[in-house]
Specification:
This protein has 353 residues and is an all-alpha fold. It has helices at 11-36, 59-62, 73-78, 88-99, 115-137, 149-159, 164-178, 184-199, 205-223, 236-244, 251-261, 271-279, 289-299, 302-318, 333-352.
């Protein structure tokens, strides 16, 4: 938790604080992993000695394991797999799609946002929403909450496609039901229906229960235990390839894990940022969310990525012109101020020439 003068710092300073703390935490976690991996089994809440087939399949599918009934793409993505052989084609497709432009923008001729534009946006947004960011997110991006990569992946999976407040309600209820949102043995042993009820306060409980149980099964099947701490020492490509192989984990979730837990300079795009980047002309109108993420990750300066991510989220919630469903999207005062600042830069450049 932040105390004293740190509470008065801007999100950019908070980002530096968090990254320092995260680096120390990551180093400690890797060291603990190396020291304990050969000595003793994982603590009880991470131990998953058995995976029960009945909790990873729906009643209809368990009645006939050889059924060939068609599934929608969404059902396939959310449903835990009971096949003992990994679906390599499915695993590799997300990685291939991402890695095609993994280190550069897919829109090389689209020159926005510029570095100056990003810096003006960060300064203006910080003045508007900096306090709100600290109030809403300061404690949640504390790396001490996620010393284990597996836990960070679970939180990212449960918080996708919903608000952070809804996700926190669901996870708080999991703490009451299981003793911890990371009590993986208890979660699996309790089965699908119990998990659905535990997640109900946050909504979308059926889909998220299937994703979570499927994620636990896949990691256990792949590594023999629920431990992804080796990713602390992996490079960015190795992290992305590992995380994208799991059903229900997309680039946005993977980037959140990399940014908060692994202290990597990467930029995640949620629904608010995707919408704002379109309204502000920071991406081509035709860009998909994944393309927008690749583009913005390549364009936004590393030093700003962590803090401007949260500033844009808050702006997307509070700005009457930029939030979802807004009837008028052309009157954002923040965008006007950014453009005015850019014009002043041009005037200064001419005067200095």
């Amino acid at each position: 938790m932040l105390r004293g003068p740190q509470l008065r710092q801007s999100p950019l300073h908070l980002a530096h604080h968090y990254r320092t703390m995260q680096t120390r935490q990551a180093t400690g976690a890797v060291r603990r992993h190396a020291e304990t991996s050969k000595a003793s089994p994982s603590p009880k809440k991470r131990k998953l000695s058995t995976i029960k087939t009945e909790v990873t399949t729906s009643p209809s599918s368990s009645s006939s394991s050889s059924s060939s009934s068609p599934q929608s793409p969404e059902t396939k993505a959310a449903s835990p797999s009971t096949d003992k052989q990994p679906d390599n084609q499915s695993d590799d497709k997300k990685w291939r799609d991402w890695s095609r432009h993994g280190h550069q923008s897919p829109f090389q001729d689209f020159a926005r946002p510029t570095e100056a534009e990003c810096r003006h946006a960060h300064r203006i947004l910080d003045g508007m929403h900096g306090e709100t960011v600290k109030e809403n997110f300061a404690s949640d991006v504390d790396a001490s909450l996620y010393p284990h990569v597996m836990d960070a992946v679970v939180v990212a999976a449960l918080s996708q496609a919903t608000s952070w407040n809804n996700a926190k309600r669901a996870m708080a209820n999991m703490d009451l039901v299981y003793g911890s949102r990371f009590a993986y043995d208890e979660i699996v042993e309790g089965g699908m229906e119990k998990l659905q009820q535990a997640l109900r306060p946050g909504g979308m409980q059926n889909r998220k229960a299937a994703i979570l149980l499927g994620l636990l099964e896949q990691v256990k099947h792949r590594h023999g235990r629920l431990d992804l701490n080796f990713l602390f020492d992996a490079d960015d490509d190795e992290v992305m390839k590992e995380l994208l192989r799991y059903k229900g984990i997309g680039p946005k979730c993977a980037h959140c894990v990399m940014s908060i837990c692994l202290s990597r300079t990467t930029f995640a795009v949620d629904t608010h940022i995707y919408r704002i980047s379109g309204l502000w002309g920071w991406r081509p109108e035709s860009a998909t969310p994944q393309q927008a993420q690749l583009h913005l990750d390549a364009r936004i300066p590393n030093a700003l990525k962590f803090s401007i991510h949260y500033l844009l989220i808050v702006h997307g919630r509070e700005c009457t012109h930029c939030r979802g469903g807004a009837k008028r999207t052309s009157g954002c005062e923040t965008l006007k101020n950014i453009r005015n600042a850019m014009k002043e830069d041009q005037i200064d450049s001419v005067m200095l020439a």
